[in-house]
Design brief:
Shape: globular
Helix content: 55-70%
CATH superfamily: EF-hand
Number of helices: 5
GO molecular function, one term: calcium-dependent protein binding
Keywords: Calcium, Metal-binding, Repeat
Structural class: mainly alpha
Radius of gyration: 13 Å
Number of domains: 1
Strand order of the largest sheet: 1-2
CATH topology: Recoverin, domain 1
InterPro entries: EF-hand-dom_pair, EF_hand_dom, S-100_dom, S100/CaBP7/8-like_CS, S100_Ca-bd_sub
Protein name: Protein S100-P-like
């Protein structure tokens, strides 16, 4: 597999790993989002000093308002974080 295909496979595997812990297998609950962020994006939570930031992030990711994050919504988070990191690396 190419590097990009590998990255895509890792994204899918990571989502599935956390989505499978509670609730539906194809969505992330608020608790699953929090665990995923703590384990996979610890820098994001450390930068957010306000404990309500996870709630805010969850609401901003939940485009369809079902109080869960599906894979498409998760991809938006990863893409936004990748863009932010890319911009920082350029400077």
């Amino acid at each position: 597999m190419s590097q990009l295909e590998t990255a895509m496979a890792i994204m899918m595997k990571t989502f599935d790993k956390y989505a499978a812990t509670e609730g539906k297998k194809d969505t992330l609950t608020k608790g699953e989002v929090k665990t995923l962020l703590e384990k996979e994006l610890p820098g994001l939570l450390q930068a957010a000093k306000n404990p309500g930031e996870v709630d805010k992030l969850m609401k901003s990711l939940d485009f369809n308002g079902d109080s869960e994050v599906d894979f498409s919504e998760f991809v938006v988070l990863v893409a936004a974080m990748t863009c932010a990191a890319h911009d920082r690396c350029k400077k």
